[in-house]
Amino acid sequence: MPVPILLYHQIATPPLRKTPYRSMIVSPESFRRQMGWLKRLGYQGLSLRESMPYITGRKTGKIATITFDDGFTNVYQNAMPILQEFRFTATNFFVSNQIGGSNEWDRPLGVLPASCMDIEQIKQWLSAGHEVGAHTMDHVHLSQISEKQALEQLSLCREKLQTLTGDAIDSFAYPYGDHNDKVRELVRQAGYTVAGGTERRRATANDDLMNLPRLTIRRNDTWLHFLSKCLRR
Ligand SMILES: [Zn+2]
Protein backbone atom coordinates (compact mmCIF):
# COMPACT_ATOMS: atom_id res chain seq x y z
CA MET A 1 0.00 0.00 0.00
CA PRO A 2 1.55 3.36 -1.04
CA VAL A 3 2.47 5.60 1.91
CA PRO A 4 1.89 9.38 1.79
CA ILE A 5 4.91 11.18 3.27
CA LEU A 6 3.68 14.62 4.27
CA LEU A 7 6.07 17.56 4.27
CA TYR A 8 5.45 20.58 6.50
CA HIS A 9 7.73 23.51 7.36
CA GLN A 10 6.27 25.95 9.90
CA ILE A 11 3.14 25.48 12.00
CA ALA A 12 2.12 29.01 13.01
CA THR A 13 -0.37 31.74 12.29
CA PRO A 14 0.63 32.99 8.82
CA PRO A 15 1.38 36.72 8.49
CA LEU A 16 -1.48 38.74 7.00
CA ARG A 17 0.63 40.49 4.40
CA LYS A 18 2.09 38.65 1.49
CA THR A 19 5.64 37.50 2.23
CA PRO A 20 7.79 35.04 0.26
CA TYR A 21 7.05 31.41 1.10
CA ARG A 22 4.06 32.36 3.24
CA SER A 23 2.40 29.27 1.73
CA MET A 24 4.81 27.12 3.77
CA ILE A 25 3.28 28.33 7.05
CA VAL A 26 0.33 26.13 8.01
CA SER A 27 -1.85 27.37 10.87
CA PRO A 28 -2.15 25.21 14.02
CA GLU A 29 -5.92 24.99 13.37
CA SER A 30 -5.41 23.57 9.87
CA PHE A 31 -2.75 21.19 11.16
CA ARG A 32 -5.09 19.89 13.88
CA ARG A 33 -7.89 19.40 11.32
CA GLN A 34 -5.53 17.54 8.97
CA MET A 35 -4.34 15.22 11.73
CA GLY A 36 -8.01 14.68 12.66
CA TRP A 37 -8.87 13.62 9.10
CA LEU A 38 -6.03 11.15 9.06
CA LYS A 39 -7.23 9.67 12.35
CA ARG A 40 -10.86 9.44 11.20
CA LEU A 41 -9.80 7.72 7.98
CA GLY A 42 -7.93 5.15 10.04
CA TYR A 43 -4.40 6.39 9.31
CA GLN A 44 -1.66 6.23 11.91
CA GLY A 45 0.76 9.16 11.64
CA LEU A 46 4.34 7.96 12.02
CA SER A 47 7.88 9.29 11.87
CA LEU A 48 9.94 8.31 8.85
CA ARG A 49 11.91 5.80 10.91
CA GLU A 50 8.76 4.07 12.15
CA SER A 51 7.25 4.17 8.65
CA MET A 52 10.13 2.34 6.99
CA PRO A 53 8.73 -1.20 7.43
CA TYR A 54 5.51 -0.03 5.72
CA ILE A 55 7.26 1.88 2.94
CA THR A 56 9.49 -1.08 2.11
CA GLY A 57 6.53 -3.48 2.20
CA ARG A 58 7.65 -5.59 5.17
CA LYS A 59 4.53 -4.52 7.07
CA THR A 60 1.11 -3.46 5.87
CA GLY A 61 -1.17 -0.88 7.41
CA LYS A 62 -2.74 2.52 6.89
CA ILE A 63 0.20 4.80 7.52
CA ALA A 64 0.88 8.47 6.84
CA THR A 65 4.43 9.65 7.44
CA ILE A 66 4.67 13.10 9.01
CA THR A 67 7.81 15.15 8.35
CA PHE A 68 8.86 18.73 9.03
CA ASP A 69 11.83 20.45 7.41
CA ASP A 70 14.13 22.99 9.11
CA GLY A 71 13.49 22.32 12.84
CA PHE A 72 11.39 25.39 13.61
CA THR A 73 10.52 26.28 17.21
CA ASN A 74 6.89 26.80 16.19
CA VAL A 75 6.67 23.08 15.36
CA TYR A 76 7.77 22.34 18.92
CA GLN A 77 5.28 24.87 20.30
CA ASN A 78 2.29 24.31 18.04
CA ALA A 79 2.54 20.90 16.35
CA MET A 80 3.99 18.75 19.11
CA PRO A 81 0.95 19.06 21.44
CA ILE A 82 -1.36 18.16 18.52
CA LEU A 83 0.77 15.15 17.56
CA GLN A 84 0.62 14.03 21.18
CA GLU A 85 -3.14 14.47 21.26
CA PHE A 86 -3.51 12.09 18.29
CA ARG A 87 -0.68 9.79 19.46
CA PHE A 88 1.17 10.37 16.20
CA THR A 89 4.93 10.56 15.80
CA ALA A 90 6.89 12.65 13.30
CA THR A 91 10.36 13.42 11.96
CA ASN A 92 11.91 16.87 11.98
CA PHE A 93 14.98 17.57 9.82
CA PHE A 94 17.39 19.93 11.60
CA VAL A 95 19.98 22.37 10.26
CA SER A 96 22.82 21.66 12.70
CA ASN A 97 24.48 25.10 12.63
CA GLN A 98 21.14 26.79 13.40
CA ILE A 99 20.21 24.86 16.55
CA GLY A 100 18.90 27.63 18.81
CA GLY A 101 19.34 29.95 15.81
CA SER A 102 16.99 30.87 12.99
CA ASN A 103 16.23 30.46 9.29
CA GLU A 104 19.17 32.58 8.14
CA TRP A 105 19.34 30.70 4.85
CA ASP A 106 15.84 32.03 4.03
CA ARG A 107 16.62 35.66 4.74
CA PRO A 108 18.13 36.58 1.34
CA LEU A 109 14.80 35.47 -0.16
CA GLY A 110 12.87 37.90 2.04
CA VAL A 111 11.32 35.21 4.23
CA LEU A 112 10.35 36.47 7.70
CA PRO A 113 12.70 35.36 10.51
CA ALA A 114 11.64 32.29 12.50
CA SER A 115 13.58 30.65 15.30
CA CYS A 116 14.85 27.06 15.24
CA MET A 117 14.60 24.66 18.20
CA ASP A 118 17.38 24.76 20.77
CA ILE A 119 19.10 21.72 22.25
CA GLU A 120 16.63 21.35 25.12
CA GLN A 121 13.66 21.45 22.76
CA ILE A 122 15.26 18.92 20.42
CA LYS A 123 15.79 16.57 23.37
CA GLN A 124 12.14 16.94 24.34
CA TRP A 125 11.10 16.35 20.73
CA LEU A 126 13.07 13.10 20.87
CA SER A 127 11.82 11.99 24.27
CA ALA A 128 8.22 12.52 23.13
CA GLY A 129 8.89 9.66 20.67
CA HIS A 130 9.63 11.76 17.59
CA GLU A 131 12.61 11.38 15.28
CA VAL A 132 15.53 13.75 14.76
CA GLY A 133 16.61 13.85 11.12
CA ALA A 134 19.33 15.85 9.36
CA HIS A 135 19.10 18.70 6.83
CA THR A 136 22.83 19.64 6.43
CA MET A 137 24.87 22.04 8.60
CA ASP A 138 23.90 25.23 6.75
CA HIS A 139 20.87 24.44 4.56
CA VAL A 140 22.97 24.36 1.40
CA HIS A 141 22.30 23.48 -2.23
CA LEU A 142 24.22 20.18 -2.22
CA SER A 143 24.59 19.96 -6.01
CA GLN A 144 26.13 23.43 -6.20
CA ILE A 145 29.12 22.97 -3.87
CA SER A 146 32.23 20.80 -4.17
CA GLU A 147 32.03 17.09 -3.38
CA LYS A 148 34.28 17.62 -0.38
CA GLN A 149 32.10 20.42 0.99
CA ALA A 150 28.94 18.41 0.38
CA LEU A 151 30.28 15.38 2.25
CA GLU A 152 31.30 17.66 5.12
CA GLN A 153 27.82 19.23 5.24
CA LEU A 154 26.33 15.74 5.41
CA SER A 155 28.78 14.00 7.79
CA LEU A 156 29.35 16.79 10.29
CA CYS A 157 25.62 17.46 10.56
CA ARG A 158 25.01 13.78 11.30
CA GLU A 159 27.85 13.63 13.85
CA LYS A 160 26.69 16.76 15.66
CA LEU A 161 23.09 15.56 15.91
CA GLN A 162 24.25 12.12 17.08
CA THR A 163 26.46 13.62 19.78
CA LEU A 164 23.67 15.93 20.86
CA THR A 165 20.93 13.32 21.06
CA GLY A 166 22.92 10.18 21.81
CA ASP A 167 20.81 8.56 19.11
CA ALA A 168 21.62 7.21 15.65
CA ILE A 169 20.65 9.70 12.94
CA ASP A 170 19.46 7.69 9.91
CA SER A 171 17.13 10.05 8.07
CA PHE A 172 18.03 12.97 5.85
CA ALA A 173 16.11 15.54 3.80
CA TYR A 174 17.59 17.48 0.85
CA PRO A 175 17.48 21.26 1.34
CA TYR A 176 15.54 22.78 -1.60
CA GLY A 177 14.96 19.19 -2.78
CA ASP A 178 18.31 19.62 -4.51
CA HIS A 179 20.18 16.41 -5.37
CA ASN A 180 21.69 14.36 -8.19
CA ASP A 181 23.37 10.94 -8.55
CA LYS A 182 26.57 12.11 -6.88
CA VAL A 183 24.79 13.83 -4.00
CA ARG A 184 22.67 10.74 -3.31
CA GLU A 185 25.85 8.65 -3.23
CA LEU A 186 27.41 11.07 -0.71
CA VAL A 187 24.31 10.87 1.50
CA ARG A 188 24.74 7.09 1.57
CA GLN A 189 28.46 7.48 2.25
CA ALA A 190 27.74 9.80 5.20
CA GLY A 191 25.80 6.92 6.79
CA TYR A 192 22.18 7.85 6.20
CA THR A 193 19.83 4.99 5.32
CA VAL A 194 16.93 7.04 3.98
CA ALA A 195 16.49 10.46 2.38
CA GLY A 196 13.40 12.50 1.54
CA GLY A 197 13.12 14.51 -1.65
CA THR A 198 10.25 16.52 -3.06
CA GLU A 199 8.83 14.38 -5.86
CA ARG A 200 5.08 14.73 -5.46
CA ARG A 201 3.46 11.33 -5.02
CA ARG A 202 3.07 8.60 -2.42
CA ALA A 203 5.99 6.30 -1.60
CA THR A 204 6.07 2.63 -2.58
CA ALA A 205 8.42 -0.32 -2.05
CA ASN A 206 9.93 0.36 -5.50
CA ASP A 207 11.21 3.80 -4.54
CA ASP A 208 14.89 4.65 -4.17
CA LEU A 209 15.40 5.04 -0.41
CA MET A 210 17.77 7.93 -1.16
CA ASN A 211 14.96 9.84 -2.87
CA LEU A 212 11.61 9.17 -1.26
CA PRO A 213 8.79 11.31 -2.65
CA ARG A 214 7.08 13.75 -0.27
CA LEU A 215 3.85 15.72 -0.49
CA THR A 216 4.19 19.36 0.53
CA ILE A 217 1.20 20.63 2.52
CA ARG A 218 0.58 24.33 1.99
CA ARG A 219 -1.15 27.08 3.96
CA ASN A 220 -4.22 27.28 1.78
CA ASP A 221 -4.68 23.60 0.95
CA THR A 222 -8.36 22.82 1.38
CA TRP A 223 -9.48 19.54 2.96
CA LEU A 224 -10.01 18.29 -0.58
CA HIS A 225 -6.43 19.12 -1.58
CA PHE A 226 -5.14 17.55 1.58
CA LEU A 227 -7.09 14.32 1.23
CA SER A 228 -6.39 13.95 -2.47
CA LYS A 229 -2.67 14.33 -1.72
CA CYS A 230 -2.88 11.65 0.97
CA LEU A 231 -5.12 9.20 -0.84
CA ARG A 232 -4.64 9.56 -4.55
CA ARG A 233 -1.22 10.84 -5.58
ZN1 LIG B 1 14.71 23.20 4.34
Describe the structure.
The structure is a single chain. By secondary structure, the chain is of the alpha/beta class. The chain has a single domain (5-231), classed as Glycoside hydrolase/deacetylase (TIM Barrel). Helices cover 35% and strands 15% of the residues. It contains seven helices and ten strands. It has helices at residues 28-40, 48-55, 73-86, 119-127, 147-165, 181-189, 223-231; strands at 5-8, 10-11, 25-26, 44-46, 63-69, 91-94, 131-134, 171-173, 194-196, 215-216. Helix 6 links the parallel strand 8 (171-173) and strand 9. The longest helix is centred in the C-terminal third of the chain and has 19 residues, at 147-165. The protein is globular. The mean pLDDT is 95. The structure holds zinc ion (ZN).
